[in-house]
């Protein structure tokens, strides 16, 4: 295995939703100021503060699906999955066409062990013609099948994700993982190299490629790639992991 695949939740929850139009125009507050503060807290990792602000926004406007979606995202980050699911479902109830929420509902259900229900929700989201995040939905389905060790299905969904958005690094990493799990490491390397042509210098992809080279016994290339990750991301997670892996590369 090239790497440990990330939880599907993380990909789905990167985007909390778009602020309502009147909030963006700076018109009088109906909870939008709390919503904006909550988004800022969430992006900066201040999850408890984000939850408080989302709840304050909901008190001011309990009919706004964006507020519930944001609350669900924050709760999911704290692994309070049942409450997150409740908030996401309320958002979808308020706006049945809010397809992005289905991505998150599906991911939470998967994290809760409701495998078939979660995948069904994601397939529904993927097939919705208004889904502007089809690459994320496909990636989450790929991740679900990867977790179930159904690697051929995982490969298919990750390829779909790549085809939807060639600049989406998670899709290449998941595709490489799935191919490696099938013993197709050389093909995994080709996919990672293709990904780096689309997203040059992306540390996570470079790290995964370095690991793949290492697994394939291409030690010179592994060392070169991992050293480059350390240079690009010396204090980040990818750089630190690359530094650890460099110690294992035969000389």
Salient structural properties:
mainly alpha; disordered N terminus; 0% strand
Summarize the topology.
Layout: H1 8-12, H2 21-24, H3 32-43, H4 47-60, H5 65-77, H6 81-94, H7 99-111, H8 115-127, H9 134-147, H10 151-164, H11 169-181, H12 185-198, H13 203-215, H14 219-232, H15 237-246
Helix pairs in contact: 3-4, 3-5, 4-5, 5-6, 6-7, 7-8, 8-9, 9-10, 9-11, 10-11, 11-12, 11-13, 12-13, 13-14, 13-15, 14-15
Write up what this structure looks like.
Helices cover 72% and strands 0% of the residues. Helix 9 (134-147) runs parallel beside helix 11, helix 13 (203-215) runs parallel beside helix 15 and helix 14 packs antiparallel against helix 15. It is built from 15 helices and no strands. It is globular.
- Pick out the low-confidence regions: 1-24
Second CATH tier, the architecture of the domain at 1-128: Alpha Horseshoe
Please state the CA-atom Rg, rounded to the nearest Å: 20 Å
- What level of helicity do the residues show? over 70%
Q: Please report the distance between the alpha carbons of the first and last residues.
A: 22 Å
Provide the β-strand percentage band: under 5%
- The tally of beta strands, per DSSP, is 0
Going by CATH, the homologous superfamily of the domain at 1-128 would be Tetratricopeptide repeat domain
Which CATH top level class of the domain at 1-128 fits? Answer: Mainly Alpha
List the secondary-structure elements in sequence, H or E. Answer: HHHHHHHHHHHHHHH
Shape: globular
Largest sheet: none
Helix- and strand-based class? Answer: mainly alpha
- Give the rounded overall mean pLDDT: 89
